[in-house]
Amino acid sequence: MTKTNFNIPLSGDRSMPIEGFDTSLHLKHAADQAKARGFDRFPIIDVDSHHYETESFSEILEYLDDPVLQQLAKTASASRHGAFGMLPGNIGYQDMGGRVARYPLRQLEKTGPEAHRDITLTKRWMDALAVDIAILFPTPMLNLGLHPQIEIEVALSRAYNRWLTEKILPNDPRLRSMLYLPFNDPQATYEMAKEFAGKPGVLGFMVTATRNRAVHNDAYMKTYAFLEEAGLPLGFHASYNWNDQTMAMMNKFLSVHALGFAISNMVHLTNWVINALPVRFPKLKVIWIESGLAWIPFLMQRLDHEYYMRKSEVPSLTRPPSDYMREMFYTSQPMERPNDIRELEQTFRMINAPTQLMYSSDYPHWDFDVPSVIYDLPFLSEEDKRAILGGNAARVFNIDIKEKLAKSI
Amino acid sequence: MTEVFVAKTGEMASGDRRIVSHAGVEVGVFYWEDTYYAYSNICLHQGGPACEGLLMHQVQDVLRPDRSFKQQKFSETEINFVCPWHGYEYDLKTGRVVADPARRLKSFPVHIRDGNVHVDIN
Ligand code: FES
Known about the structure:
The complex is a heterodimer.
Chain A: E1 6-9, E2 15-18, H1 23-26, H2 28-37, E3 45-50, H3 57-61, H4 67-80, H5 102-105, H6 117-129, E4 133-137, H7 150-168, E5 175-180, H8 186-196, E6 202-208, H9 221-230, E7 234-237, H10 253-274, H11 277-280, E8 286-289, H12 295-309, H13 321-325, E9 329-331, H14 341-350, H15 353-356, E10 357-358, H16 372-375, H17 382-396
Parallel strand pairs in A: 3-4, 4-5, 5-6, 6-7, 7-8, 8-9, 9-10
Antiparallel strand pairs in A: 1-2
Helix pairs in contact in A: 7-8, 8-9
Chain B: E1 2-8, E2 17-22, E3 25-32, E4 35-40, E5 55-63, E6 69-82, E7 89-91, E8 96-97, E9 100-104, E10 110-113, E11 116-121
Bound molecules: FE2/S2 (inorganic) cluster.
Residues 43, 45-48, 50, 83, 85-88 of chain B line the site of FE2/S2 (inorganic) cluster.
């Protein structure tokens, strides 16, 4: 239910009463940027954005098959507000003490009865950013892979996937997803991919990277083979886990967020390449999501350095790891912006950005990127900018987009 | 130079701000402890509405004499406004980026005349 006011506690015993929130106003400057830069001239596809699925948790629970689990989940959610009790908790301060005020204020935003609130709110930010098509991912469920009960990861992710493909995606062609795979159960992962491939709006599948499962386990091969055959990309979506023993040595959210989002995907990518999965599944499109870009040159150099000395450990690789990495795909956000722009230019060159990089906003999360972070880069040609902002995603996901769908505000 | 009306004097309480615009230039005018400050409302990061976020005192570390960490506190004098998009903090009195003081928002002169507050926007 929408609230009507909120009092943000501030420093110095002050507070700030707020009576409303409007995404379109919040993002007006993004819409101004879109107009000034002519974003109506080409499509923009956002390959990593989010919704707050727990705001629809009671609807999602209706899709649980197991009646005992459903009853358990309903009471746990009702008595502890929202999804608590069912989802692994995650310590964190994404809203920066309220400084990124859309976190606490989104509950004030009004929506009408014409569409599901999730759709209305999503399209508001998409229109402001001139995004035509967005691939939506969940938010709290990004840590579902840390759930100690594997059967709950399977049940909840299937309920979420059913809700998404029945209630949300079919109602608006601008909204798409790569559906959640319950990776802690390889057989359920395979069955999930088979069950949901081809459903409206399903562009591929996604593994949340914060989990302790090795991607090269033989039990996953049939899933990879299926996705490769079906032409459906597989994405690894990064996150952080402050309870991880390495992360637990750090005391600031900044530290955990900066390293966690990179390390979670670095481990999986290393296993992916070093176990020759690109050789075994040469046509499978693999996407590394929300780790930024600065880690890729680092990992390329580290792996290549060891590869030349320890080739006997990786007989199936016929080329250095960086070669395979250059054939994978990456989403752009959170795109590090070094003071010396040449560092970023070098990264773009190392990953073949004009063909392998896909714009992502990560909206509405705290470190989102507007499309102008790509469009304003001085070292890209107009053609390359358009490829990164939409053309590459259209090719990778087989999206046929003929006209601009975002409505300017 | 164009004078743009902001408010009547006495209308803004300490901590209030107004966003005014003229010919496509948006300016945030703050009133804080008897002084007006005016800055461009375009954040130096990604162009967000820099002047529309929270006013927060500067956070400071408090160390013990042996240099071990005791706690944090809010400064009593240093106050920042925070861009609501991603949290860039700007020193209210200078418009400088707290994390990179070499960079600052464009500032605008504020005048009080005949009981009215105006900002000069070029
Ligand atoms: S646009 Fe202001 S903090 Fe990013």
